Amino acid sequence: xxxxxxxxxxxxxxxxxxxxxxxxxxxxxxxxxxxxxxxxxxxxxxxxxxxxxxxxxxxxxxxxxxxxxxxxxxxxxxxxxxxxxxxxxxxxxxxxxxxxxxxxxxxxxxxxxxxxxxxxxxxxxxxxxxxxxxxxxxxxxxxxxxxxxxxxxxxxxxxxxxxxxxxxxxxxxxxxxxxxxxxxxxxxxxxxxxxxxxxxxxxxxxxxxxxxxxxxxxxxxxxxxxxxxxxxxxxxxxxxxxxxxxxxxxxxxxxxxxxxxxxxxxxxxxxxxxxxxxxxxxxxxxxxxxxxxxxxxxxxxxxxxxxxxxxxxxxxxxxxxxxxxxxxxxxxxxxxxxxxxxxxxxxxxxxxxxxx
Amino acid sequence: xxxxxxxxxxxxxxxxxxxxxxxxxxxxxxxxxxxxxxxxxxxxxxxxxxxxxxxxxxxxxxxxxxxxxxxxxxxxxxxxxxxxxxxxxxxxxxxxxxxxxxxxxxxxxxxxxxxxxxxxxxxxxxxxxxxxxxxxxxxxxxxxxxxxxxxxxxxxxxxxxxxxxxxxxxxxxxxxxxxxxxxxxxxxxxxxxxxxxxxxxxxxxxxxxxxxxxxxxxxxxxxxxxxxxxxxxxxxxxxxxxxxxxxxxxxxxxxxxxxxxxxxxxxxxxxxxxxxxxxxxxxxxxxxxxxxxxxxxxxxxxxxxxxxxxxxxxxxxxxxxxxxxxxxxxxxxxxxxxxxxxxxxxxxxxxxxxxxx
Lengths: 356, 357
Known about the structure:
The complex is a heterodimer of chains A (356) and B (357).
Chain A: E1 2-5, H1 11-23, E2 28-30, E3 37-39, H2 45-55, E4 65-66, H3 70-76, E5 77-78, H4 81-90, E6 95-101, E7 115-119, H5 124-133, E8 137-138, E9 140-141, H6 153-158, H7 162-167, E10 170-173, E11 184-187, E12 204-211, H8 214-233, E13 238-243, H9 250-259, E14 273-280, E15 283-290, H10 297-302, E16 313-318, H11 326-330, E17 335-343, E18 349-355
Parallel strand pairs in A: 1-10, 2-10, 4-7, 6-11, 13-16, 13-17, 15-16
Antiparallel strand pairs in A: 2-3, 3-9, 4-8, 5-6, 6-7, 12-18, 14-15, 17-18
Chain B: E1 2-7, E2 13-19, E3 22-29, H1 43-64, E4 72-80, H2 84-101, E5 105-109, H3 110-116, E6 135-140, E7 145-152, E8 155-161, H4 167-177, H5 184-193, H6 217-229, H7 232-237, H8 239-265, E9 269-273, H9 280-293, E10 296-298, H10 311-322, H11 351-355
Parallel strand pairs in B: 1-4, 4-5, 6-9, 9-10
Antiparallel strand pairs in B: 1-2, 2-3, 6-7, 7-8
């Protein structure tokens, strides 16, 4: 392990040494816009493996890479033209962008969902180094797994055993770095969740109605509860999949049912699932869910929904088309409805209710 | 008395040891890769990550405090609001510890804990900062937008709250309308810096509506409709202006109600918390308003107390214990609640806790 001090005067020279070390597939420590980072060439799994070994981390979380600019981002990840505009405004900056990977770099960098974390930053040394190498390198903080980032080299070295120190070929000490927090992570990936489509489920249209304002939507929700859902709740659980774009009135619909029991329902986007014990008539509980933020089917399993499918429980699913494990819940004997909401103007909404 | 506290309402697994207002240890396990400035639950991580990390985090909190588990006098735990499957993990562990150690269990509401974070102290009892009752509590996060009058310890009156979406959630969804990524808050903040907030003329929600409740669902819909009327090209060219316009109105909605609440209650102290306060613009607007009205603003004294943590749960727990709000032996009456009433387990605790008094 060799430690060299970085100054403005020797920046060029040190960037050359760092370039050589990276080129040879070695692991080095470099300063960055946030904390000190571990750098290894990102196009070599052998080099990336050294980062994982050093940190004592499994290759399941993903490791970000430094890229020189938008052209490089386009080369290594998929971005839409709309996203390109966003990136023009945000970069360079203290962000880590999670994008769909083109899989040109080491696969060890990518978690199971095949995404790549990229950083384009404003930092003299890192920019110089990227220019010299011509290949991206890893941008992960220099620490052992589970520990915090380091802003000073002596403090970092103190945490290392001699064996760990030997794994580093070069340490570039730029003095004490300003304590900037780690970068903000932003996801710009496409959705990976499989959406269920009612076409495959033998849907039967049972109601088709237009409402002209939110108040009418509330009344319609109450009518649907009384005409369809209430009877079924006497013998089983009832699930309603609410499908409609942002602002189409899914929460308003749920609030309509809540009002029948003097309950104020809120948007459950943040908590994922609200629970409202009612115990009136056939209705035991309302579970108000919002699958908006779910990104893969496993996350639905984590909610352990099966034990909520019991007689008298009403489950309202906003963004319910993401309910990939729908088939499993159907097997519990629950009745399922699909409510398709379409916005036909500022306030006009068309509701189609299907029994599944 | 030393309190061991546990917080798992969201995606941070946290444990702490406190003594009165003093924080002896404060351990937060956060996913390094997911730095969430604006809060929000990532379900994939929530339950499994909590189950995996909580035992380690609790051990570390006890060790860092430099004490034995035997010195713990009570256990405090967050029972809501939050994601129920996540809350369950913390509650199960807290009940287990309380029965093993034969110590009382103190139920704490996540929102009240945020208020108490402003009065936490370090090991040496600093800062001295006196409690400033009565104060107006403002929570703005991905899941909450609430105005609460806190007259004294455990004396809460909810003055207003959002009737549908929370402010942070609205920012996320506006970002989605613009085709941006997740979480939307930081992107909207960054874009807003470069945009003209008057690019779109949006209605400030509930401005003329009496009372102190808020609503974001209408703003979300009208933003979506306005953006849909623009060409793709115009939207792409004017992302900063669109973001700035939405953010301005989203914050204006809070300021209108905040000002009204401060004026009608005559409260001279304001305590602000929640993830959206990471937004510098919102902080500035709140400080400016407070200055104009001669109101003192309090933020948590240490950065580690701003986001979700267990130290604030321990501090709140201490004052609840003083008031006799805790359970002994039979912990069954305490259950996790996704969106509990703020006065549950405070002034009118259910049977068991009352008997414990």
